[in-house]
Amino acid sequence: MKLHEVHRFTLSIPEPFDFSLTVAKPAGWHWSTPRETFERGTLWTGMYAGDIPFGLRLSAQGNVVPVTVFGGTPLSGDLAGILEREVWAALGGDEDLPGFYRFARKDPVLSAVVKHLKGMRVGMARDLFGDVILAILLQMAPWARSSRMMDAILDHYGQRIEFDGREVTLWPRAGVLATVGPQELRKTAKLGYRAERLVAAARYLSEHPITPDELSALPENEAVKRLMAIPGIGPYSVGIILGTFPIDSWSVVIFSELFLGKTPGHPRAEIEEVTSRLGERFGTWRWLAFVYVVQDLEYLSGKYHLSRVR
User: Fold this and answer.
1) Is residue 105 situated within a structural domain?
2) What is the pTM of this model?
């Protein structure tokens, strides 16, 4: 799908703000889609407004971010407003980073990472079905395997858009994968048992759509219930989608070693205890604490013994 320029706007993100750290996080997390491009301070990416795909080009001068929007047809005022709000939130414009930094200064681990990654806002573009795909493909798989599965899903079912001399592939819509059989997904994307889960989730969300705005308007316990109703989505996946404290059998070792001073003998069995203890310790800052630590493991491994980081 070829797109052309349809809109421009400029955002001012509160300080502290480091554009590069925010949209191209050190651990390789994508901002909107794994198939975006970040080069020499400019990000070419895209997102949906409703089910309409748009291309985006973002750069920054300090905390000012000019955004160019590319679409297939002229942009209505309503869609323009939706995109502006989505990009603002995805750049972490509503995050209380100074408040988190004040909290982090009381902790030796967090104080080190916030100095090292100063200005990194944790916001990312939210695409509920894209988050569901990511959460399911991360289940019981090393990162390299999850990446191969994501690449295959995007290759075979993603929405390709071309603009500004670039090509970006967005996550497929739930309606696309709802029509695909699990056998096909096992063959084309090598998903194994995850094929049934992903198809079931796609069919559920096609029949019971949930928008990010609806989800964010709910109290956390209600949002958890809505997400847990999606087939294949458990507590760890909910943590990824909502941005809470998604500890698994790999990260439980890292967080226990860093903050509790011990290596779990049985990591999977200790997830609930570690999640509870650190959730209480970090409180409302638990998602920011999680992201900052995970994004700075290479730096932390030079200061602390981390048995799961080489």
Assistant:
1) no
2) 0.92
